Amino acid sequence: FSSCFSDTGTKPPESGIFGFMINISALLGVITMYIRYLLIEKQNESSHFVRSSCNIFSLCIGLMGCIGMGIVATFQELSVPSVHDIGALVAFGSGVVYITLQSIISYKSCPQWNTYFVCHIRMAISVISCIAFIPMIVFASQISMTKIDWTPGEKDYTYHFVSAICEWTVAFGFIFFFLTFIRDFQ
């Protein structure tokens, strides 16, 4: 399932660095999501723009994604592919749902707590990530072998290549989405 992204950290010593950095990223994700949750709760006290249960649900989905990242970091692609793939599916799937929910919450907080421009950017990132997530799964599921060094013309190379592009698109979507929180956190 997880193609090129995990290929970067399959062989030692890169695997140790990859796992460590993914776990640090997951921890930073948890912290960011929790701060975002608290911020929305505080804003919601005076504005009542979203149900508290929706905010909690969004946080839980986001935390599931971070747990998925921890699974990806702990169980390497070539060592335990099925567990690694489940972790990747949870990380990417929950991440896409989280940023979509946060985009909706952002719109509900307009114009008092967010600008429509920021909301449009967040929603655009969410839509692109959702669109990339679907072919990522479809093409990754067509790959019949788990390997690292791919060459053009090999069996399943095209599936691997397209899946990798989609996977990196979703991963960078998450990064850019979190960057949109900078102004909110000031």
From TrEMBL:
Where in the cell? Answer: Endomembrane system
**Domain of life here?**
Eukaryota
Topology of this chain in the membrane: Multi-pass membrane protein
Keyword annotations from UniProtKB, A to Z: Membrane, Transmembrane, Transmembrane helix
Q: Where is the CWH43-like N-terminal domain?
A: 6-186
Q: Name one GO biological process term.
A: regulation of autophagy
TM helices/strands, residue ranges = 16-35, 56-74, 86-105, 117-139, 159-182
What does the entry list under GO cellular component? Answer: endomembrane system; lysosome
PANTHER family for the chain: DNA DAMAGE-REGULATED AUTOPHAGY MODULATOR PROTEIN 1 (PTHR21324:SF11), FASTING-INDUCIBLE INTEGRAL MEMBRANE PROTEIN TM6P1-RELATED (PTHR21324)
Per the record, the similarity remark reads: Belongs to the DRAM/TMEM150 family.
* Protein's recorded name: DNA damage-regulated autophagy modulator protein 1
Task: Give the organism, scientific name.
Answer: Aptenodytes forsteri (Emperor penguin)
